[in-house]
Automatic annotation (TrEMBL):
The protein's name: Imidazoleglycerol-phosphate dehydratase
Species name: Lederbergia citri
Family that this chain belongs to: Belongs to the imidazoleglycerol-phosphate dehydratase family.
UniProt EC number: 4.2.1.19
InterPro entries associated with the record: IGPD_sf (IPR038494), ImidazoleglycerolP_deHydtase (IPR000807), ImidazoleglycerP_deHydtase_CS (IPR020565), Ribosomal_Su5_D2-typ_SF (IPR020568)
Amino acid sequence: MRSASNKRETLETKIELECRLDDPSVVEIQTGVGFFDHMMEAFARHGRIGLTLKVDGDLHIDSHHTVEDAGIVLGKAIREALGDKKGIVRYGSSYVPMDETLGFAAIDISGRPFLHFEGEFQTPSLGNFDTELVKEFFRAFAFNAGITLHVRVLYGENTHHKIEAIFKAVGRALAEAIRIDPNIQGVNSTKGLIE
C-alpha cells in the first residue's frame, strides 16, 4: 500500500499527518479551523485517499500558519507515498458543480511544481478561516508535492460553494492522476523518470 507519515513542528504549528493512497477507509481531520476541516475531508473523500491530519497551530494569531503548513506537510507526504511513480496515470482533471458554482482542477504529477489559480471570494472569512488562504494552501501543496496544479472557479456566487467545489475538484483530479494503470510500463514520461 502506498502510504506516508509526516510530522512538522515549528514555533507556529505542530502537525502530524498520515496519508494512505490506496485505503480511503479512514479520514480524520482536526486542525482547529472548522471550515478547513470540512474542506480537507471533502478533498480526501473525493480523492479516495485515507488521511489523518492533526494540527495544533497558533490560532490566537489567525489561521494562516495552520492552513499553509498543512499544505506543506500534505504535499510532502503525497510525494513520498508516490515513491518512484511507476505505473501512475500522472494526469488528472475534474469539473465539480456545486449548486450555482462550477470548479475545475487539473493535475500533472510532473516533478515540476507550479500553481495557476483563478478564483475570487467576496466573503473574506468563513468562521475562523480566511478565504485568501485557499490559494496559499494550494500553492504550498503543489510546490511540496512536486506537481503542476491548475485550479479555477469558473463561476459562482456563494463563497462556501466556490471553495468546496475546487477542493473536491482537486481531490478528484488527484485520484485520477495517482491511479495505477497496468498498461503503463515504468513511468508515464518520455524522459524515463518523474522526479
